[in-house]
Amino acid sequence: MHMLYNSDSYVVVRFDVPTGESETASPGAEAASRGGYEIVDKFARKEIFIDGAMAQTFQEGVQKLIENDPSEEEMDAYIGRYTSLMQHPVVMH
Predict the structure, then answer these.
(1) Three-state SS string across the chain, please?
(2) Which contacts qualify for 81-85: CB closer than 8 Å, 24 or more apart?
(3) Which of 1, 11, 42, 83 is 20 to 30 A off residue 72, Cα-Cα?
(4) Residue 45 pLDDT
(5) Are the beta carbons of 10 and 81 closer than 8 angstroms?
(6) Per residue in 44-68, pLDDT tens?
């Protein structure tokens, strides 16, 4: 788990999950992993976990944005595109 972004509005955390394929890989080979991003809207108190193609699209968009040294407002606006998908309330446990 790696916190990638934290603003007044959003938190973005990357999760890397080993796939378990390393058992069949040759010695010294890196373990394959998959993962995704958890995006939390602090004001709405909702979150979403994205993986697969959606996570790849999110990552590519962030990388393009970072190339232009974005402001916090620009980053929040990009992340805000995913708020309409958020269905899960944030639960502390």
Answers:
(1) CEEEEECCCEEEEEEEEECCHHHCCCCCCCCCEEEEEEEEECCCCEEEEEEHHHHHHHHHHHHHHHHCCCCHHHHHHHHHCCHHHCCEECCCC
(2) 82/39, 82/48, 82/50, 82/58, 83/41, 83/44, 83/46, 85/48, 85/50
(3) 1
(4) 95
(5) no
(6) 999 999 999 999 999 999 999 999 9
- Measure the CA–CA gap between 28 and 90, rounded to whole angstroms: 40
Separation of alpha carbons 54 and 41, rounded Å: 18
Q: Which amino acid is at 54?
A: M
What token pair was written down for 75?
Answer: 């980053």
- Residue labelled with tokens 């955390």: 13
Sign of torsion, CA 70 71 73 79?
positive
